[in-house]
Every structure is written in C-alpha cells, then in structure tokens.
Design goal:
Blueprint lengths: L1 E6 L11 H7 E6 L23 H6 L4 H7 L9 H19 L6 E4 L6 E8 L11 E6 L9 E2 L2 E2 L8 E4 L4 E3 L7 H4 L1 H4 L2
Antiparallel strand pairs: 1-2, 3-4, 3-9, 4-5, 5-8, 6-7
Length: 192
Amino acid sequence: MVTSLHRFPHASIPARIEPSLVQALIHHQVQDTRPPSARANLTNVADVPKYVMPAETYSTLPDSVLAWKKANKLGRFDPHAPEIEKRKIHEGWTEVEARGITTGKRCRLKDDDTRRGKVAFIGDVDEIPGLKGPWVGIVLDEPIGKNDGSVGGKRYFDCGEKKGVFVRPERVEVGDWGVLVDEDIGEEMEEI
C-alpha cells in the first residue's frame, strides 16, 4: 500500500491550528498497489454472508414492525384489507379501460420518463410483490428496460434483453408515439 499526504498551499498558517482546519488543509489518499485479482471484491454484496432471521422467530418478537402492524391493525391485519384490495384491483382495471390501453398500441411512459414502446401485455403478474391488479408489459424501443418480458422465470411476452418493462396503468399514455430518434431526446440528454 502507498500512502501519501498532500498539504494544500495557503499564504499563511497560524501558529496554533484548530483540528477542523487541519482536516481542511490535509488530503489523505490511499492507493492499493495490489493487482485487481488479489484485491477483495467488496462491491459485490451478494458474496457477503448475511444473517437471516427465521420467520417464526421474527413473528414472536414484541418490538418488530410486524408486531406494530398487528397491534395497529395495518396492512393485511386490517379487518377491511380484503375489501380495500378488491377496490384497488377494480380501480386498476378501470384505469386500463379509461386510458384505452390495449395490446399492440404505441405508448410512452408518463412523468419524467422519456421511454416509448408498444403494449405487449396487460394482466396480473404474480411474481411482482405487492398489490394484485393489472400490470402493463411494454416492449421498449430502446434496450433501457428491466427485463426481456419475463419476471421470476415466467414469460409474459417476448422481447429482447433489457427491452421489457412492467408498469402500473397510471404510468402509461397511449397514442401515436413514434419511435424516439436522437433529435427528440433534446439537448440536455446529449450532454450526458
């Protein structure tokens, strides 16, 4: 290992230096001179062993989030949860109909998202955690998606690698959206 200290040039340095000023004046740089193959890969957290608490143990803890949800009747512990879930599923399908989302239509994603594509799937995707209800599977024009039309090993539609995405209906706007070309992206994207 090579360690080097650099002092930043200043016109005058007081006789008594405050510790906070020392931090501002000194830059500490550490270089690992070992070849990359000899260094530990600390960026891949998948290789780091983790403690996993058994579900049975967690469910018995009095000060867990689960215990708090049970005590306050929140989420699935709410006695009205089944009706709320049914209402949200119905609202999702109503949103699909109101927006005119059907397979084969051109679309773009709303908000700050500039992605465009074609609707390839509308329906439930059990492999995505959370509330049930309709998901819209889109084949994107460019490979900037999250999947290839499959989730958790189950295929919902066919497309190239990273050209598929699943979103909720409220994020989809159908219309006569052409394929994005460079001049449509704008000058701010050209700087990236």
